[in-house]
Amino acid sequence: MVGHYWLRNPKLAPNSFLRLQIENNIEAISAFADDVVGGKIKPPSSPEGRFTQILSVGIGGSALGPQFVAEALAPDNPPLKIRFIDNTDPAGIDHQIAQLGSELASTLVIVVSKSGGTPETRNGLLEVQKAFREAGLNFSKQGVAITQENSLLDNTARIEGWLARFPMFDWVGGRTSEMSAVGLLAAALQGIDIKEMLTGASLMDEATRTPVVKNNPAALLALCWYWASDGVGSKDMVVLPYKDSLLLFSRYLQQLVMESLGKEFDLDGNRVNQGLSVYGNKGSTDQHAYIQQLREGVHNFFATFIEVLRDRPPGHDWELEPGVTCGDYLFGMLQGTRSALYANGRESITVTVQEVTPRSVGALIALYERAVGIYASLVNINAYHQPGTDSSLYLLLWLLF
Length: 401
Ligand SMILES: O=P(O)(O)OC[C@H]1O[C@](O)(CO)[C@@H](O)[C@@H]1O
Fold this sequence. Notes:
Layout: H1 16-37, E1 53-57, H2 64-73, E2 81-85, H3 90-100, E3 107-113, H4 119-134, E4 143-147, H5 152-160, E5 164-167, H6 181-189, H7 194-207, H8 217-228, E6 236-241, H9 249-261, E7 278-280, H10 287-296, E8 301-308, E9 319-321, E10 324-325, H11 326-343, E11 348-353, H12 358-378, H13 387-400
Keywords: Gluconeogenesis, Glycolysis, Isomerase
Organism: Artemisia annua
Pathway: Carbohydrate degradation; glycolysis; D-glyceraldehyde 3-phosphate and glycerone phosphate from D-glucose: step 2/4
């Protein structure tokens, strides 16, 4: 059962039990976040008397969405600042803990794992618990678990009496879980309007249900991918947001697109080795690094420009020279690069966003989720499993033990 789109429109859930579960969960997340931000729920031994930091422990679909959204939408001075442990690299873990310093006492640790048994996440949790012990802090009063009911993580959190537990549903895949507790809790704690994110996603879902292809942005996107890559993934997707706050979009899309579409067999059991490779960065900064090859080098890609029309809030524009702002340069760089690629026969798609807001970010996420689903239908594969990653994890465990 696949139902991530019910998360933003619970009325679409197949029965009232699921609908209520989704609605109650959103309410529980909002209430918990309000209580933490408002200081009603506080850490037991912090001088600040309230939580000031979030340490999110998770990997893949349990990290990339929250990372992208934090970078895109967190205000300059969020009520709680977020940092991530998303690897089993001891130096990386030590760095995050060291950066927290004495604020470990006012850190809310959110451990996110759908399966509840991913090795990197488990290791991150054990390392953080050790740091708490060494600092004389009680981890369970500051720990929150987001996972499937009765997973190893869920049982640990329940038995150890952690501060809170929020469910992940088995009908939501990790890579499409940003609108579940995985993304919503971290966002709400940073002061991001999660209802607006859900509204944006739900409006995009609606807009992409029309069977009239030319009016359906997700269908158009999927058809562009199909055309550009000959329906066999012959070209890579280069994602170039011209907006600093959308820097992590390509990283987020890497998992959504590659884990969903990179499949050995089609639905009829034919070996097809499908997929679309995704990479990217941000414009205009990185065009100083890659434009030479994109324009003149091997033609093994198609580009996606993400264009954002509003740069500063109205009334805050400042002209560098008469009639020209910094943002005009950014826009000019995008247009110039796109024209240069076009002149050399290199294909590009442009996705235009009015402004980076919770609503537009929700809509962007839904747009790509829907495009992935449509593309998978076009090439006759299952977008919602990951036999390749699952078997490489088994191999890792076999090598270790
Ligand atoms: O949320 P979990 O179960 O810890 O999994 C993390 C990630 O690992 C994967 O299973 C791939 O290894 C992804 O599909 C998933 O997003």
